[in-house]
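Table S2 (text version). Query chain:
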Amino acid sequence: MNILVKNAVVLPMTASEASGSYFKGAVGVEGERIAMVSDKEADADAFLAAHEGDCTVIDADGKVAMPGLINTHTHVAMALLRGIADDMPLMEWLEQHIWPVEGRMVYDDIYVGARLGMLEMMLGGTTTMVDMYPYEEAVAEAAESAGIRAVVCPCPMDFRMAHFEEDWRKVRERFSDSRLVTMMMGPHAIYTLSADNLKRSIDLAEELQLGSHVHLAETRVEDSNARAQFGMSPTEYFEKAGLFKRHTLAAHCVVLSDSDIEILSRNGVSVAHNPQSNLKLSSGVAPVQKLLDAGINVAIGTDGASSNNDLDMWEEMRTASLLQKCTTMNPCAVPAYTALQMATVNGAKAIGREGELGMLKPGAMADIILVDIEKPHMYPHTNLVSELVYSANSQDVDTVIINGRITVQGRKCLTMNAAEVCRTAQQHLEALQLK
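Corresponding structure-token output:
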């Protein structure tokens, strides 16, 4: 499919800073990739002429064209568990409420929960998600069906290791030719993996030349337990185990010493910051500005909808910026454009797709969203970047293009029946609660 988005305010996210970062112009898509980004009307006319009779034209007057958002840490099938256990500490929440229900979930439950989360994310402008879950074949199948880009991270844990390598290879083989689904290893956390099982995960990632996605330094309890058991921090433990020898994306990173930050920086570890989930579970506030100052690539994630309780990347951007201003007592910490970079450019780098995702430029993948700025809460127009981070919300996303395919238009999902997805999810949750 060829697509011409014209009359848009184009925010390509290719600039290093906010000044001069957007312009009135057009974006042309050929197949799966962006072919043209220009502020010249003549270029838009030439693109349309070159694809006469074979081009979908979208008039984006009053809208911002920008890269799709990249959610670098979630457990999308947990959308099915939204609200079943709130207002409690992380380990109590996991051990007494979440894991028992997850233990009763089967393939169809995970598929249904994943579709619910994907529907929410696409309607909110998320075009790529990094998902960690034990049963990723169902998540990958749901992503293919929904038309969203997904990095699936099958998740080894001590009590789910019996057929781990066999199941992991099965998923990889099934989706090896997918245009939307790619994979990373997903070792869950220091408190759910023995040294032997962590090594199995690291060895398999090395064999298959893949990166890893891990929970790291999420709570003070995790940190204190690691120091008591191993005589070192979780960050030091993972470095010693060899996890960081390959590309690693670490979620949370709330409890970090200066030496931990140096380790992450030295090893090129990317961080997935999950501000709202960390707040809701009272885990704390990650030292994001300190990480950025150390040259660490920091992206944004939502975590799962059962600990957030939504998958809204606009809320996460705003919260990430405001938290750092408050905790550092510096109003200049994590400015608006940096927050946008965390949700786009930095997210692409975190999954090894720098320059290919997270920005609008010729040759990049055609993952584009159109944000309606003709809303009362976006007026008056003074600073577009600030408007997007501090005023916009997921309901402002009008159109979503993923891999050159229009998946949302006029706030309607074209790849899923929203009412059916919601109704089916409700039925599956009620059946789970009766088991």
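Notes on Table S2: The mean pLDDT is 95. The first strand starts at residue 2 and ends at 10.
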